[in-house]
TrEMBL record, chains A, B:
Gene Ontology MF term list: DNA binding
Statement: the UniProt record of this protein carries the keyword Transcription regulation: yes
UniProt cross-references to InterPro entries, sorted A to Z: HTH_HxlR (IPR002577), WH-like_DNA-bd_sf (IPR036388), WH_DNA-bd_sf (IPR036390)
PROSITE patterns for the chain: HTH_HXLR
Name of this protein: MarR family transcriptional regulator
Signal peptide bounds: none
Domain of life of the native organism: Bacteria
Keyword Methyltransferase among record annotations: no
Keyword terms, alphabetized: DNA-binding, Transcription, Transcription regulation
Length: 180, 180
DNA sequence: GCAACCAGTTGCGATTTGCAAGCAGTTGAT
DNA sequence: ATCAACTGCTTGCAAATCGCAACTGGTTGC
């Protein structure tokens, strides 16, 4: 995958697989999009799936190379790096929505980890667009001029859904836990 | 991934990645869905990306294990095996549509290999549903009772788009090639 | 009878993965 | 000023996976 571009084929599915077709890249983007992680350590220690630090470093580097992420210094801490989603990555929201819907239907998901996918599916393209606007504001620094003040932000709707499930589960008997 | 189900997490995105997150599984499903490949050799020798036979055999076995495909003997040839998409796999059509749309927009696709993705995107959920009905008829043996006789089958629309691009390219100067 | 075709399998070097530990710095509290 | 905790990684290494090439046992059509 150098400058002379050694791709296996020019098919859009294949080219996407070449970028995202491994066991970690999509999960990192998911955590940045839906879990609001921006720093290396956040991604490392809050990872549900337990990514290793060398693999995280490698994937972040590749995602930056591919134009999916940008890396910037954190002004509050000389050693911290802030990773941001690019427009290219933000436009994966509909892909995530469809994958989340499919996975929730066909795979043995846990309720609290799939509620957000289900809400996003139910919200449809309109909600996806709204969520992408929120991500642009957060990651690309765009203004909130086009924001609809009457609508609850999508990230808040998703968090509320997650917390409702957790609260119900805690009440039902098990010892509940908060956290993202 | 045994009976005791050792998953990294119950997140729908993660579980999907565990099944499809490699460099070949999605491409095999793509070729079966959009290229109408049903036999081992078809998948092997017509693969745009050049999959190796051992990897193809391994992925087919895993996809059958996961309930994405079924394998049956071909009555016309004692050695031939017919692979069919299951409903679980057919319902990946919207995922493919979104990935194809995203890839076509952001990656260096070739026109003739992305025209089908673009047509599928433009057709929207209505076209995806129609295509899924066609796949159910072809792979699950469902009746064509619900088919709309006024509508050109999706696979035919996609093929027509592909051939139109190829014909134009051939006319424009280069030596064109047919083939799927 | 024989070439072509069928779905894979085998051997093997190269690459990738994943775990554990370590590193050179920075920060904040004492 | 000191020190523990935290920062984004890097390194070493064993295990698993990948991908190429050759090969297998059997079937089919001519």
């Amino acid at each position: 995958m150098d400058a002379v571009s050694e791709h296996r084929s020019g098919c859009p599915i294949n080219l996407t697989v070449e970028i995202l077709g491994d066991r970690w890249s999509l999960l990192i983007l998911r955590d940045m999009m839906f879990g609001n992680r921006r720093h290396f350590r956040e991604l490392l220690t809050n990872s549900q799936e337990g990514i290793a630090s060398n693999i995280l470093a490698d994937r972040l580097r590749k995602l930056v190379e591919q134009g999916m992420l940008t890396r910037a210094d954190d002004p509050t801490h000389k050693q911290k790096a802030i990773y941001s989603l690019t427009e290219k990555a933000i436009e994966l929201v509909p892909v995530f929505a469809q994958i989340g819907a499919w996975g929730s239907k066909w795979l043995p998901v846990s309720e609290e980890l799939s509620i957000r996918a289900i809400l996003l599916e139910q919200g449809g393209p309109r909600m996806w667009e709204q969520f992408m606007r929120e991500l642009r504001r957060e990651h690309l620094g765009e203004s909130a001029a086009d924001a609809d003040p009457d609508e609850l932000p999508v990230w808040m709707q998703l968090r509320a859904g997650y917390e409702a499930v957790m609260a119900r589960k805690a009440g039902e008997g098990g010892a509940g836990q908060t956290g993202d």
